[in-house]
Recover the amino acids of this structure.
């Protein structure tokens, strides 16, 4: 039952460790850590790739926005190295490598620490989930990904590289917006995927409800529970970006975060709608199953009941009494058939009249 | 299962696009975009029609209120053109053409952006839904409709054209009120329609509950889920119009928005009442069905049980034992009939006494 | 299904009309409008009756409190006439004649507009509902009733006429309190009536649960839904009278409104208790029914099962095999009876032991 | 169904009476009103008993705390007399004699009026409820009890009489605290009693679930509904005592009220836990019952089904065809027995394999 | 049913006692009270053990943090002695020995009083719960444990003894943080343990659902009810530590409490998820059971129904009518077999077609 593991990460191995202990919790990708740095302003874009964390030094202040994207938080030493270069708070680093955080935002004064979850539909019909951590400073943005399946940021990278678009002239907070927007946008794919599966199961329910439909519905309910866990706290976090009083967020960007907030609420709305639909489908399933079984049993019991009196009658004339007058009648046998047919017809009529047949 | 599509719009095609990208999401009407401009004050009314967006220029400031009504937001280029004439924020335009917004209000300083949904009952008994976007400025009001089924504003147009009525002497905020009021008023038609269907299904339930009643109830529950999604956020939005601190809204108009707010709360109340009624009907349906089936089976089992001992008895006297004294009795056969009738009567009496029959 | 009409008033006929349009929605009494005016202070009481609205003029300011009670809001012209005499806001008049308002309070500066519902138990066991609208000014109070069944204000009238009592020395706000208190007090009759019906149905459930009990429970659940709609908003409205900052309410009267608030909360508490009780009764009903049916079927199946093996045995000795030794035994028949009685007893014992009988 | 009467007091007899009308609602004890006065400070304690209210005069201001305890609020005239001696507000007196108040606190400036409910377990396993009203002034405390079953204040009286303890040196607010604490403490007895009954029913459910278990569960659910009505509003009231801004409450006493608040929350927690446990038990009961019935029917149907084919077979060889070869075989009878035993065994095996037996 | 006792502690024995009465409520460990004192700063660590409370004296103010850990709150006299040495408020001591407190925090000005629950998984699969009380002063921290199963603080002790680590340089508030963090961390073990049991039961449900699965699910639901009682109030308490305005908490420590708060919310999230999963499992169980039973009964009824008409037919030809032509036919017997086989096949086909088999 693999999807369940999402709820039972071995979080307890951290018990007893001092705060700020970096312990990786979660799945590890097969590849090594990758650090890509993008420095851009409205005039130019500059890109670097580091394949070893040790090569990484603190960035010289540049005239523009620096985006440092790290894929692979399982490399705890590399994360510690990067964290120390920038004197990030140990609790921030601890949360980055512990990939079972719930979405949240924390204000550390000099920088904002944001955690959210990237969801992607899988081939099996459900979805995978990775943690994305952002550290937003005045002119830089760090993004930490688990690095298992790639990210949803190619559109943003393209816009930066093209050198056109609004993004190049704006600050790091707008970059954070663009990335968070991309993540929230990708939720819609997951939801549409989910919506299609709901329609499929609904059709299956209408045609041939069986035990596998039930398991599909229960499985989808479990996924909705997980989805809710991912999106509800997100709303609160993005609401802070829209309304909070951090100086790192410019007023012009807040309008955009309002837009993301709006999308998040739409996502939550849809998740709640799915939850209601699934409850309705569960009711429908249970009622269909019991309806069908009852129908079978009703029909069969009717059949059985018609034959009860008939069997009794033929039993009567199978008795061996010395004196049993009807047996002597020449047309007794045919008269009995007539009687039995009459009884059957009357019972069928009665059943029809009372709508039991 | 068409009504489901309402929950699964292909919202994801926008993933990865920069903010402010105008992508039409929703159904397209068959006709081209239509722009009607109405300029009025307490003295005169002036009307124009544009059939091509390119003809449209920014309006010269006039001494009165200008109402620009655009039908057909699928013409993305036209919307962009209009938006640029008035330097509306790109996010506003994006939301106008993406017709799966939830009701909301956004304050952009110079203007308010309001989104709501026009509902109309259809011939199939359910209702269709179109997005209506309003941009309310100091002396103008833009209304953007999907343009699929026409609008509910003929009453307002009539009042303006008649030149009498309060509306001609008031500002653009009063016009916005009049239109929003017309939209909320039209919800009552949908609700009454819905209420009549509930009464119909209730009657059907009382007479002949069957599987189709269940599907009607489940279908109506789905519609209620959609209705709630449309009206709950509306309450919050209209509450802003009543209490918010925008300078675009005059105190004299706020009284009227309080009235609309009141109507919205009435709509929500009714929707919630319908939800409760539908839950009650589901209980009633399930209980009726199981009641009826149980009644059938009880009756039939009683019948069967009466014949069990009788069939056993006639079997006894159908045995071929050499020495079976009763068979020799001259009135054995009639005595047996007497016994069997007595047994039957006793069982019927017993069943009656224990109220099983 | 008449009680349902309460949820489906033809509210939609107002769609498209300008705000302040006076359209009567609701039932009309058989009689004409009646206007009674009571002017009183601690020294004297003066009463007038108008049977035609046109006779009515604005009241001269008197040294005391003026209570104008209007019965019959279906006479739209009369209401308009009265409203114009006092320059009440058109929205107020609109709400007075549209008798499907939810309880509310609106502050218009010079006067407060209060809407609530008068409930009264009917002979059929349920209750009727009328809208009562109050306009509370500095030294006057208007009350508008539907006028279908009379009101609950005779006690208040008596106290004023008697010239004693606290009421004569107090202002119009105290009069409003006295009337609202009378209305809320009358809710207790409805609730007690309802409580007695709950006890009746509970007893019926304990003795002979049947389908009609279910319909009673479902019907009462519907009434509770309506009751909740009437009392929940009332709480908010009366809370404004207790704590709001209108100058029309004196501090000495607020204590009394706190008392009414308290009663309203008691009413809500009781309604919620009834809701919970009805849910419990529904559970009890469903469980009783299924219990009884299962009991029947269990008993009958046991009977049937005892006769199955016996019928098989007598069938064995009804066979016509040439060589069937037992048939030749002289006491075979009696031995078989012994065997069959033994089998029956053993099965009954087994059933008893496993507590199936 | 006596416990139900708790929900249907004849509250309506007060309809139409002016506010402040003293009408006793509730049960009356058999004895006459009793007034006990205790005046104490850290030096001395003085006690009086009045058996007739008329003897009672307003107390001379003493150097200490005066506790006037009145048992028997059914004596409306006595309550009026006492109220007039101290010029308490008529609404306060009205609430004292109307013993169906919900717990509340009201600030009348000079004094606080507090209502709560004393609960006590009865011999029948459930609990009785009496109203306790307190009027807390700067140096006095009135307590009004229904006087049916005695109170829970003997501990407090003992502490005062002993002259030691903290209570003698503190003000009237501390006395109020001590009494309220005693009342809340007594809730724990009711809850423990209730908890033991839950354990009993749970054990009964595990052994022999029957219809009486259901009635016990439903009955206890009703009691929980009543308990919740008594304790939820209490929380709000005591929260006022802890945090409200009345000058009658000293800061040193507030710490103690925080403790009572804490206990109240514990009581609420426990009540909510019981509610959840009872819901779980209802599920368990329904599932046990249906499980047992299904088990019976499954077993019996299996038995019946084994005999169906056998009875058919013996019927075959009971036929009277002229030419029926098997009947002529010498060992036909025994061969048939073999066949029938084989069929039975195969069916039993099949049932066992599919886990139906 | 031992886990139930958790809900029914004999709390009532305290009724009537004055506030601050020290009465131990809860289980007692077998050993005597143990007092361990740790005094540390960034330079040195000093440890003492007292085995008799009387040896304990108030600590001389030292240059560092003093952690006094007391195991065994059943020794009421010892607790009183310690409390008096430090003039703690009697209510604090009362709550320490009454080990059925809900998690809470109370600000006494000079010190904070914090109560929480230590949970630990037991060998039986569920978990045990002990109360941990903390008194946090400016340079000291008292911790009171029940002392039944040991604590989870060895990690913290190790960090202090090692003399390195951040903890030695920080104040008593950081020590409180470290201990609370250790407690909350230990919840994750309980949750993981619980999660594994959920997976086990889920697998059992998928393979062979039976009555014991139901009892497991109901039992786990009860544990979740208890877990919720332990963690929900904790959130509020820790939120105070993060945001409250006590001077005992330094800003640098608040960041860490934010981290604990975060973990607490994660714990609550997981508990709520388990609750939802258990509800889903209950649905699945009930549906599986009814599915299986229905399947059995359907199959068996089908079998029975096929044999009904056949038994009737063989009964027909077992009749003894004088004139029964078919009996005379030479191949009548074989023709009948043909007919019966045909009927059986047709019925099987019909059942298959309607998907009843």
């Amino acid at each position: 039952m693999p999807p369940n593991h999402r709820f039972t990460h071995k979080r307890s191995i951290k018990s007893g460790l001092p705060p700020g202990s970096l312990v990786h919790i979660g799945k590890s990708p097969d590849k090594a850590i990758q650090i890509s740095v993008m420095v851009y302003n409205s005039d130019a874009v500059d890109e670097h790739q580091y394949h070893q964390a040790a090569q990484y030094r603190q960035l010289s202040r540049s005239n523009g926005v620096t985006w440092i994207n790290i894929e692979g938080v399982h490399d705890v030493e590399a994360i510690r190295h990067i964290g120390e270069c920038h004197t990030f708070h140990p609790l921030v680093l601890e949360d980055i490598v512990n990939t079972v955080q719930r979405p949240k935002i924390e204000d550390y004064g000099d920088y904002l620490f944001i955690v959210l979850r990237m969801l992607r539909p899988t081939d099996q019909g459900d979805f995978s989930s990775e943690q994305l951590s952002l550290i937003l400073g005045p002119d830089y943005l760090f993004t930490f990904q688990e690095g298992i399946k790639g990210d949803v940021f190619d559109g943003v990278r393209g816009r930066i590289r093209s050198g056109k678009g609004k993004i190049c002239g704006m600050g790091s907070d707008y970059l954070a917006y663009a990335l968070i927007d991309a993540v929230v946008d990708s939720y819609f794919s997951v939801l549409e995927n989910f919506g299609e599966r709901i329609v499929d199961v609904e059709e299956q329910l209408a045609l041939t409800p069986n035990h596998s439909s039930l398991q599909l519905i229960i499985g989808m309910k479990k996924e909705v529970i997980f989805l809710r866990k991912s999106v509800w706290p997100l709303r609160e976090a993005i609401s802070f970006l829209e309304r909070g009083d951090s100086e790192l967020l410019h007023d012009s960007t807040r309008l955009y975060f309002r837009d993301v907030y709006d999308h998040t609420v739409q996502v939550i709305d849809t998740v709640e709608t799915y939850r209601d639909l699934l409850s309705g489908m569960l009711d429908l399933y249970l009622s269909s199953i019991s309806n069908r079984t009852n129908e079978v049993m009703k029909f069969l019991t009717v059949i059985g009941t018609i034959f009860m009196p008939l069997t009794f009658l033929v039993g009567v004339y199978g008795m061996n009494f010395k004196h049993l007058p009807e047996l002597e009648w020449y047309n007794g046998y045919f008269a009995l058939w007539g009687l039995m047919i009459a009884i059957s017809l009357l019972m069928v009529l009665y059943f029809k009249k009372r709508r039991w047949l």
